[in-house]
């Protein structure tokens, strides 16, 4: 199976490699980032295990997860984006960017590129994102990309020592197509 590389406007999404482990730890080991995610900060060994597991799952046929590195112009991992296939033509979207790279449009571009891949290449019908209610930046990304607010998932994830709600956003294939034609 050939590795996936998907060019975005400012980033490139690509399959993770074992040499991404240090960059992955800089993301998942940083409390500034993980306060917004569905898991607590991880140590270096856990970051290595995460990358290795991602590489292994990328080989599954059929593939049920697209957990891709968000790479900058120098091909350095500055974040990750994930589409987890959840059923018939449906997936959950997730993304995170290293705190040192916030404010450069990387999350928006990574999410846009992943949505486009999901609808155009994978022929998905529906993509959802569950976002912490206090994560204003991620809510802005979802809304900017045309995702619709569906509701609040109460006590959805246990992270940082407490249960946290999530706000559910979604977009359908025909909505994405309409948005892309309009822009």
DSSP helix fraction: 25-40%
How much strand? 25-35%
- Whole-number mean pLDDT: 90
Distance between the termini: 33 Å
Description of the molecule:
This protein is of the alpha+beta class and 183 residues long. 33% of the residues lie in helices and 34% in strands. It is built from six helices and eight strands. It has an eight-stranded mixed β-sheet with strand order 1-2-3-4-5-6-8-7, sandwiched between helices. Strand 3 (65-71) and strand 4 (77-87) form a beta hairpin. It is globular. It starts with a strand and ends with a helix. 31% of the residues are buried.
Short description:
The chain is α+β, with helices and mostly antiparallel strands.
Task: Give the topology.
Elements (H helix, E strand, L loop, with lengths): L4 E3 L4 E4 L5 H8 L2 H4 L9 H14 L7 E7 L5 E11 L2 E8 L8 H16 L4 E6 L4 H9 L3 E12 L2 E11 H10 L1
Parallel strand pairs: 5-6
Antiparallel strand pairs: 1-2, 2-3, 3-4, 4-5, 6-8, 7-8
Helix pairs in contact: 1-3
């Amino acid at each position: 199976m050939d590795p996936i590389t998907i060019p975005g406007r400012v980033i490139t999404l690509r399959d993770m490699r074992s040499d991404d482990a240090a960059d992955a730890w800089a993301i998942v080991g940083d409390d500034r980032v993980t306060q917004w995610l569905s898991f607590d900060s991880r140590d270096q060994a856990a970051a290595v295990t995460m990358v290795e597991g991602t590489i292994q799952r990328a080989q599954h046929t059929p593939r049920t997860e697209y957990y891709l590195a968000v790479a900058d112009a120098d091909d350095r991992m500055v974040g990750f984006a994930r589409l987890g296939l959840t059923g018939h033509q449906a997936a959950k979207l997730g993304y995170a960017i290293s705190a040192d790279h916030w404010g450069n449009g990387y999350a928006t571009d990574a999410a846009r590129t992943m949505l486009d891949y999901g609808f155009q290449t994978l022929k998905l019908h529906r993509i959802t994102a569950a976002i912490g209610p206090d994560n204003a930046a991620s809510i802005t990304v979802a809304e900017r990309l045309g995702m619709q607010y569906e509701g609040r998932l109460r006590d959805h994830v246990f992270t940082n020592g407490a249960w946290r709600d999530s706000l559910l956003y979604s977009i359908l294939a025909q909505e994405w197509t309409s948005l892309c034609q309009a822009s």
